[in-house]
Structure prediction request, 231 residues.
Amino acid sequence: MSWSRMSFKGQPVWVRVGDDQRPVLDSDGRAEMKYRQEDPKSYRPSPGNLVPLAEPGSPPASPAQPRPARAPRAASAAHPRAPSASMTDDHAPGTIHVWTDGACSGNPGPMGIGIVVVADRERAERGEYLGMGTNNIAELTAIARGLDLAAELAPDHTRPIRVYSDSNYALGLLGKGWKAKANQELVASLREQLATFPHVKLVKVAGHAGVDNNERCDQLARQAVTSRHDV
Prediction:
C-alpha cells in the first residue's frame, strides 16, 4: 500500500491506496487520509468525499471508487441511553465545554491527546503522552480525560456538558450505538463514565477547519507525541 494525492472537499490531501490506486477501507468502510504525508495524525473520511486530483486542463474527476466494503452496521439497541451527537451547541449558563483531540504517529505508534475545558471564565488545557497505541485509542482516551476534568469543575455532575470531537469513530461508538469490535474495554468504560452525567451532549466538529479550541487540542496532542511527555 502507498499514499496518493487526492482532493477532500476541495483541499489536497494524502490518501492510503492499494496497488490499484483505490482507497483502502477499514472495517467501517472509511478511508485513511492525511493533510500532509508526514503528519502523525490521520483521519477517516467517507470515500465518497475523495476525488482524484485532476491534471491541469482535465475535466473534473469523479469521486474515487473504493474497494467493496461491508454494509454499514445498524445502530445497536443495547445502548438506548447513549448521548446524542449533535451539531447544535447549547450556551446555557453553567455549561462546561470539553474540547478533545487525539494524535498518533504511525497508527499504531506513539499517542498523544489534547484537551481544552471551558467553564464560564475558567479555562484549562492539558496535553498528555499515552505511549504506544492507535489513533482511535487516543481519540477515545481524550474524551475520557476531558470528562475527568469536567468532573473536577462540577463534582455533583449537574451542570450541562458539551463534548466536542472531530472523530467519527468515537462519536459513532458513544453517540450512535455502534458496536465496538476493538477497544471494547475502553469503550465500555467510557460509556459508563458518560452515563454518570445526566446532561451531556456529544458535538461533531470539523478537524483542521480553523475552529480555535479544536486546533488548540490538536496542537497539544502533537506536542505530547513529539516530546513524549505531558505538556
